Amino acid sequence: xxxxxxxxxxxxxxxxxxxxxxxxxxxxxxxxxxxxxxxxxxxxxxxxxxxxxxxxxxxxxxxxxxxxxxxxxxxxxxxxxxxxxxxxxxxxxxxxxxxxxxxxxxxxxxxxxxxxxxxxxxxxxxxxxxxxxxxxxxxxxxxxxxxxxxxxxxxxxxxxxxxxxxxxxxxxxxxxxxxxxxxxxxxxxxxxxxxxxxxxxxxxxxxxxxxxxxxxxxxxxxxxxxxxxxxxxxxxxxxxxxxxxxxxxxxxxxxxxxxxxxxxxxxxxxxxxxxxxxxxxxxxxxxxxxxxxxxxxxxxxxxxxxxxxxxxxxxxxxxxxxxxxxxxxxxxxxxxxxxxxxxxxxxxxxxxxxxxxxxxxxxxxxxxxxxxxxxxxxxxxxxxxxxxxxxxxxxxxxxxxxxxxxxxxxxxxxxxxxxxxxxxxxxxxxxxxxx
Length: 435
Fold this sequence. Notes:
The strands form 5 sheets. The chain has a 6-stranded mixed beta sheet with strand order 13-12-11-20-21-22, with helices on one face. A 6-stranded mixed beta sheet has the order 14-15-16-17-19-18, covered by helices on one side. It has 8 helices and 22 strands. It has helices spanning 2-12, 156-163, 185-197, 202-207, 216-219, 231-241, 285-297, 325-337; strands spanning 15-16, 19-20, 28-32, 37-42, 47-55, 63-69, 76-81, 89-98, 101-104, 111-114, 128-133, 167-171, 210-213, 256-260, 263-267, 302-307, 343-347, 354-359, 365-370, 399-406, 413-420, 425-431. It has 435 residues and is α+β, with helices and mostly antiparallel strands. The chain folds into 2 domains: 2-114, Immunoglobulins (Immunoglobulin-like, Sandwich), CATH 2.60.40.10; 128-431, Alkaline phosphatase D (PhoD) (Purple Acid Phosphatase, chain A, domain 2, 4-Layer Sandwich). 18% of the residues lie in helices and 29% in strands.
């Protein structure tokens, strides 16, 4: 068993009998829009990089960007490919080099991406889909708690890649910091390096752009709040290993936003501003004010609010938003009073999946899809008294969700499909959006 563990982590760190690869992980596609895309490179040592890219319809229009991965602390670099055209498929190559030795990433053949379409004032919004999930525990026996391994079914990442979504939204606990990590920035970074090097993760990094929020385990200790003294470290590290389009409210935290087709995504930070229950806030004043204003300003048909913990679940248990009942109700009242339609919360944390639905007095719906866990231990919450649960949606096993948005302007449909770790469908629901 010990020999297998040593071999496994040798693979994770890309070490072989022929020496160490310059790639710690596959190039990760990140934020994409009509004219640009971010690609995050993650190496094993300081080196030069060279990215070539071209439209698939005309490979002669080849462009290049060069630079260095020079920070030996993180060994990451966000490369922005610009001067792209909307709704266009591109091919690209990534080459790392050091001391005259070049290494091109070729494991999955030709790498490609597609830019967003320019549809406004021209056509109906395009159909699209995205994958989502939370709670990805990668075992490391020497530092894990004794007993049965908590992480399993890593093949789920390969199952997500086979779906080929337009992007993936990670809903927190994307890594699990351990006790040995909490006081060491270097070992926090190492935790991310191990997660990104997981063999089953590699193709997923390349097939679609990735966005992320966090929850307690990638922010700090279990159930942590804004008092965690090293949140400056975890904030910095999070930004190094994810390449969202924006970060922070008033210069703090990981709050962000992006738009895709006729949907907007509000990426909330439920840890940096969080207080003890007696002080009564999860999001903090500045973030709540930003969210309210952003929702009021939104012209998008669908408004997805990503937050680490469950929002609608009525059972005031663990870290559900119902344990901060006044703030939760204030947000619900705001959405209702201002007739904000198309609101869907996306949450994680609970190590089980379920869909909750709330019909407001004005007839509008609010949904909360909890998608969890990816690889962590699973939990069955069917005995919890969540009065808003949609029957038949609890999944107490490793799983992920794909959300499909399709149809013309008059018949836009939101469909949720939940899959198990092998990629087999578990349940499928269409949402009655009333918008």
